[in-house]
Amino acid sequence: MAIRVDVYTALGVARGVVARSGHLRDVLEAGGDLRVERATWQSLDDVAPAPVGEMRITVDDIVIAVGDDEPSIPVHASWHELRIVAPPYALAGEMPTLPGYDPGRALARPTGEFVLLRDVRMAVGDDVGLARPLAPLAHVNRYVVERVAADLMLGFYFPGAILEDVDETVHA
User: What is the dihedral of CA 27, 14, 12, 94, to 10 degrees?
Assistant: First the structure.
């Protein structure tokens, strides 16, 4: 069964269908190129999307991916509010961890390129305060995040990002 997707890159948004079964995260984590069929493309400067047929997007170039599939969410997850700046987007949402997760003592480190967020809000630019609802669930490329604010230390999740206290940021 195909997965309907919205793929946000630094240059714009591709919308279409990924003709693979399974979960979007599995497709993203396979690496290489994401083949989007029946695609439309809207650059950040365009007023409306234009049909382009088929697109191949390098997975490393994806900032945010939203699919209509049923992603696997950890059972009994604890959800943590966070704010992210992943240019050219600012995001707010919640990230799951297992109950009792202590980032300072955890032996397991995050794997994969993408982090799942729920109740995602997004703005173009770096002002999370302007964020509007995007999707119930979205996958964010953790390697393109420049700033993150959360109620726990997430340095291992977002390598290279500037870490801020969630209380010091604007709450959307």
Answer: -50
DSSP conformation class of 93? E
Bridge-based pairing state of the strands 78-86 and 89-97:
antiparallel
Q: Using the predicted structure, report yes or no on whether residue 33 has a pLDDT greater than 70.
A: yes
What value does the mean pLDDT of the chain take? 86
pLDDT mean over 146-165? 83
Burial class (CB in 10 A: 0-12, 13-18, 19+), 47: exposed
Domain count, the chain: 2
pLDDT at position 167 is 62
DSSP result, 135-157:
EEEEEEETTS--EEEESS--TTT
Is the preceding omega at residue 159 within 30 degrees of 0, hence cis?
no
Give the domain range for residue 155: 78-168
Burial class of residue 11 (count of CB atoms within 10 Å of its CB; 0-12, 13-18, 19+): middle
Among 67, 92, 110, the domain-final residue is: 67
- The residue among 1, 64, 60, 71 whose CA lies nearest residue 33 is 60
109 band by pLDDT with thresholds 50, 70 and 90: low
